[in-house]
Structure formats: structure tokens, C-alpha cells
Amino acid sequence: MKKYAMVVDSSVCIDCKGCMVSCKVQNNVPRGFWRNWIKQTTPDFSLGKLTRTHFQPGGCMQCDVPTCVQACPSGATFKDQETGIVHVNEPLCIGCGNCVRACPYGARFRHPEKRVPDKCDFCFSAGRLARGIPPACVDTCPTKARVFGDLNDPDSEVSRLLREKPTVRVTSQNIDTQPNLYYVTATEPADWPGDVEFPQAYSVMASLVNPLVKVAVGLSALGVAGMWAKQAFAPDPEDDDQGPEARHPESTASKQD
Prior knowledge:
By secondary structure, this protein is of the alpha+beta class. It has one domain (about 5-40, about 55-240): Alpha-Beta Plaits (2-Layer Sandwich), CATH 3.30.70. The chain has nine helices and ten strands. It starts with a strand and ends in a 10-residue tail after the last helix.
């Protein structure tokens, strides 16, 4: 059993956006959307001295307590216990968008054509991990700001970095999702995640839809009702969250594909 994770040394990020572009190309991310991002701080000259701009790469945190999974009424969003990666089972998705709003990192968007959530999966679906190749963003980074590996392997580079260097994890204000992206030392900005936004109907649905029904939803009357609701109530793509740059406008994501 593996537990994939990423350690980011944001102090060496130069904001070249190579990670964003390579991710977009490798995973065929649609125009106007992104699976990963680079945040930045704004220098503060109020103290009479120059302060450096700090860049912080990010993406789906592959959380151990994923609120997106909790918010999904159909079981389409799930955490793979064999890899630690949070995936989307597209045939089970009813298009409600709950998971998009429940992610405090803005790491999900609704695919404008498929009408299902899209997100980083460490390039698992692109077949890179099966071939022993790291995610495209890691492969492309010229300064090696991103390091990828298996936390359950004590000899992996991510395990070594976590032993040797102090790290922090960026968490939401109202819940610790236990993310599996770690940042070396004093990463900034550390307060950009939003609150977890569970829909009003979530508490009611959570009490009615048990795990067995979630798995069987595609074959049950609930699945039929969900597909009807998807068509009747799902907003147009342009009204949905469009990934990190829409949820967090301070992102420096390039507008060019």
C-alpha cells in the first residue's frame, strides 16, 4: 500500500508556471481552468525595507480527511486507500457540485463538457505513476520546488525531507483536512484557504444516504433522481467555480493555455 504525497520548497519557486502548463497539457485541462496554481504574497514596504515576493505552488492536497468526499452524496468522490489519492468516479457523479464548494482550497472545478468535477490526481489517470514517472508538474519544475513520492516508503525523497526539514501544512480556518502537500519551513501565504462550504441539504442527505446506498446509487432510484437533478438544476459552466483562480483571485495563474 502506498501513500503518495508532495513536499514543496516554495523558497526556490521562481513563478515560471512550468508546473501549471505541463499539468494542463498532460491532463488535457480545458481552456480557462487549472488543476494547480501558484499563489504569491505582495511585498510590504511600510517598514521602510524591501521584502521579497514569496511564491507558493499548490494543487489538490489529497487530504486524509477530505471534505469533498464527505460532501459527495453519491460516493463518486472517494479516497483510494491503495494510493492515498482522491479520485472522481465519473459514472457515479450526479453533477450536484457539492464537492467543488466543500473544498477549502479551490482545487476542483466542474468540467465544462463532462459536467463532472475535475481535479489533480498526481497524473494517475494520465498513466504516469503506473509507468514510474512522477507527475508532470514535478518533472517540469526547473528548480525542483516540488518533490513527489510515497510516504509509506521510508527511503523515498518525500520521507527523507519530512525527517530532515521542518514543514508546515496549509489548512482551512474551520477544519483540519490533514493535507498531504507539505511545505518546507515558513511557507507564505499560509492563510489563503477558505472555509469549508457544505450545502444546506448536506446534513439531511448525510443522515439518509448510507455508504451502501452511495455505492449503489448508479443502479438505484436515487441515481435516476440524481441524473434528473443534474440536468434540471446544475448551473451553466460559466456560473460555476473555475478552479483555484476563480475561488482565490490572488492566484497568479496565467490566462494563456
